[in-house]
Amino acid sequence: MNEVSVRYGGRSGTVYRLRISDALLVVRTKSRLSLPEAPLAGPSRQTLGDFRPVVAFSEHGVEVVGLPRADESRRDVARKTLKEDAAVEFAGRVLVDAESPARAETPVVYTENLFVQLAPGIKQSAVTRLLGKHDLTIKRSLPWLSNAFFVGAPQGSGLAVFELADRLLDIPEVLLCHPEIVRQRQTRAASAEQWHLKAVTVRGRRITAHANVAAAWRLTQGKGSTIAIIDDGVDVAHEEFAGKGKVVAARDVTQDSDDPKPGRGDNHGTACAGVACANGKKRASGVAPQARLMPVRLASALGSMDEADAFVWAADHGADVISCSWGPVDGAWFDPRDPQHRVLSPLPDSTRVAIEYAATKGRKGRGCIVCFAAGNGNESVDLDGYASHPAVIAVAACNDTSRRAVYSDFGKAVFCAFPSGDFANPKSGHPAPLTPGIWTTDRTGNAGYNPGGGVQRGDLAGDYTNSFGGTSSACPGVAGVVALMLARNPSLGATEVRDLLRSSCDRIDEVGGDYDPDGHSPFYGFGRVNAQRAVKLAIAARRRNLGRKPKPGPAKALSKARGKAVARTGKPRRTSGASPRKTSG
Asked: H or E segment at 440?
């Protein structure tokens, strides 16, 4: 068997094919130590000599290694040797997208767990019998979705979990079923002084390409709204997140704890949180400085059940808007020949239904507003199943001259743009930015992007960075604008928020924006968000609707819109730094 498949959307859903890589191996040691640190025997060390590290999924205790080029026989020799090593729990094959060229193989690691939803009305005893017939054990039920479960297959099932999922989908009582398959998750930051908030002078240059945020503060600063930042953790001890009631419902879904502090090297979430809602009492203001911050740490791989749990946690604990500056791996923005640009990254059913739960059931049925960074690959966002989901607001990045940031993804799914950092690209004639990037919060001291001790990366103490960017920075900016809107009109439904946000946008770059007759640009969506106008529209809507029931959330529209997305892409359709997304300066 050289190929397996997974079906998202149920028995009549879309089939995604995955093939077995001839170059990659996934390994878990019994000690959970990395391969260089684990007490491997001599033959194992020898057979791994030519394998290079590819990616580690620490929450699953596994790492992927690969040969310089495909060699099935050498892969199998290494796999056999490692399986016989007393220090190794397992060594297995790795999947990749079936259509990925060899030089763009992105590892897809499967677990022996499945996401299953059965038809409503089936009693628990019948569920247990049905799953038991297939030797499946219920690990936990998913109370946010009717008759849904996270289940485990027998240890050692291996690739047979894909066949098992197909057999289950042939049972009429099973609505959704797929193995838990995970991919590398990539943050979307690129690498000033708050020029995105108002007109300022930076390095002697007047910058006016802002989102009119400071003007909106005369109407509201977001008090009463809650922004959930789903990311790699937030330094909640930072001086700009201080104050009674600022941080609420903190969670780490990866570690199953209430401590969202970042892990080693996890700097991204703190910077995103600062862009959204830093207090502005010290040295950095968020777009909604008086909004509450809900930090939800997600350090797990793309597609994991932890991912779904993050959205459900945010919706169930009072988030008004959810900001996600991460997604599938991007291609290199500066290399148009990178085959990664053409890789489709589908959205698993487990995460899809969790996003839809938040977008329809959150805010007491009005719906949370879910924002995603469009991506930093200079490629089509329509191939990204996360950012292009119909319930999501996909945010692109524009720069300090009101033009597209060179790395920013484009396409039909782009909803709007927000100011962020940029890079020069002489080959394409793209000029250098006027500013280093976005000034925002950094992890306190020398742990973050700014090591301190100098002014090149931010402040002397290292508590702030001046070079955050990418669509990672643009996304929480828009989340902050939504928080401002909801602070003045909390009765708005999610659909109404989208409509008003759309109407608030300023059309920028009229010549290069390629706007269609409906006013949509593949690069800017409906334009750069204007925070003051968005808040004024929200206030006007409240006056009009005073005494009326709010419009319902987008629940009924989702299935129809999703169908359109499938037709558009052929399949259901994710950001900061010197690399396209992970580092911010």
From this structure: strand 438-441
Task: Please name the residue that has the structure tokens 């301190």.
Answer: 452
> Residue 255, exposed/middle/buried by CB under 10 A (0-12, 13-18, 19+)?
middle
CA distance 52 to 50: 6
Active-site residue, from 196, 238, 268, 389 = 268
Closest CA to 544 of 499, 505, 478, 509: 499
DSSP per-residue string spanning 61-108: TEEEEE-SS--HHHHHHHHHHHHT-TTEEEEEEEEEETT--GGG---E
Q: Name the phi and psi angles at 122, rounded to 5.
A: -75, 125
Cβ atoms of residues 545 and 491 within 8 Å:
yes
3-class secondary-structure state, position 255: coil
First to last CA, the chain: 44
Q: How far apart, in Å, are the Cα atoms of 199 and each of 209, 398, 466, 501?
A: 7, 15, 17, 21
**Does 196 participate in catalysis according to the annotation?**
no
Separation CA 163–CA 440 (nearest Å): 48
CA distance 79 to 523: 46
Per-chain mean pLDDT for the chain: 90
**Which position has the token pair 């039920």?**
141
Nearest by Cα to 275 from 471, 503, 502, 490: 471
Strands 369-373, 326-327: pairing is unpaired
Specify whether 341 is catalytic. Answer: no
- The count of other CB atoms within 10 Å of the CB of residue 518 is 6
Give whole-number Cα distances, 66 to 74, 87, 92, 104, 105, in Å. Answer: 11, 20, 12, 13, 11
Candidates 472, 504, 521, 576; catalytic one: 472
By residue count, the chain amounts to 585
**Residue 531, helix vs strand vs coil:** helix
Q: Catalytic residue among 22, 231, 349, 422, which? A: 231
Amino acid at 474: A
At 573 the pLDDT is: 31
**Do the Cβ atoms of 212 and 530 come closer than 8 Å?**
yes
- pLDDT (tens digit, 9 = 90+) per residue, 99-151? 776 666 789 989 899 999 999 989 989 999 999 999 999 999 999 999 999 99
The answer to whether 333 touches 406, Cβ cutoff 8 Å, is yes
> What single-letter amino acid sits at 12?
S
Longest dimension (CA), the chain: 76
The residue written with tokens 């720069």 in the block is 399
pTM for this entry: 0.85
| Amino acid occupying residue 203 | R
Tell me the chain's radius of gyration from C-alpha atoms.
23
Take residue 75 and report the two structure tokens written for it.
């892969």
